[in-house]
Amino acid sequence: MEGQHDGLCKQIRTSRSPPARVEQAAYARTSRLLTTRPQGVYIHDSRVAKANASLALARTCALGRPWNALHRSLFVDTDLDESVLPAGYVAWSAADPRVVPNVTTMAEYHNRGPGWNATARAAGAVGVVLSAAQYELYSSVEKVFQYPGEGRFGNVGWIDRDVEG
Questions:
Q1: What would the 3-class secondary structure string for 99-131 be?
Q2: 15 CB contacts (<8 Å, ≥6 apart)?
Q3: How crowded is residue 67: how many other Cβ atoms within 10 Å of its Cβ?
Q4: Bridge partners for 44 per DSSP
Q5: What is the DSSP string of 51-104?
Q6: Which of 60, 62, 90, 162 has the fewest C-beta atoms under 10 angstroms from its C-beta?
Q7: Which residues contact residue 13 at a Cβ distance below 8 angstroms, ignoring those fewer than 6 apart?
Q8: What does the domain layout of the chain look like in residue ranges?
Q9: 120 φ, ψ (degrees, to nearest 5)
């Protein structure tokens, strides 16, 4: 994923470096304008880095902000460069945070690198750092992606598992 996406990693590029497992996927089947359906991304075994060295982005880029209260994004086992904001995730705005406890999912598990800051993540109180028990619900892409309209998990046939970083 690369570019100026409003909800996730603005001005940050996500890529894998071999021999990372190929489980990085973006769920882009629903319009982000819809407010009644969960939408989101699952980033696993990846690297989040600014698009190029000329960008002065130290500690300025949020992992994401919720485009609606049903936002779902997870960064798992991911190396975060220095461009990542210490708090990780941010609310949409002060007047309209779009973060609803037990509904909005903006989570991390086992991330590392200069962009990882456990103290700032806790103080930011927007995203959540998952425990091993909490992560079990998301421990494979088959547990994350549902078939639209069915609620049945395992909708992974559309994922390109041969992407090269």
A1: CCCCCCEEEEECCECCCCCHHHHHHHCCCEECC
A2: 46, 47, 49, 165
A3: 19
A4: 76
A5: SSTT---TTTB-SB--SSTTEEEEEES-EE-TTB-TT-B--S-SS-----TTT-
A6: 162
A7: 1, 2, 48, 49, 50, 51
A8: 12-144
A9: -70, -35
Q: Which helix (H) or strand (E) holds 142?
A: helix 141-144
Locate 29 and state its tokens.
Answer: 């089947």
pTM exceeds 0.85, yes or no: no
Q: What is the pLDDT of residue 39?
A: 57
**CB-based burial label for 29 (10 Å; 0-12, 13-18, 19+):** exposed
Q: 60 and 83 in contact (C-beta within 8 Å)?
A: yes
Question: Per residue in 20-33, pLDDT tens?
Answer: 222 333 333 333 33
Q: How far apart are CA 165 and CA 137, in angstroms?
A: 27
In this predicted structure, what is the pLDDT of residue 38?
Answer: 55
CA dihedral 81, 84, 87, 89 (to 10 degrees): -120
Alpha carbon distance 140, 146 (integer Å): 12
* Integer angstrom CA distances of residue 115 from 1, 59, 112: 18, 7, 7
Distance, in Å, from the CA atom of 146 to the CA atom of 31, rounded to the nearest integer, reads: 16
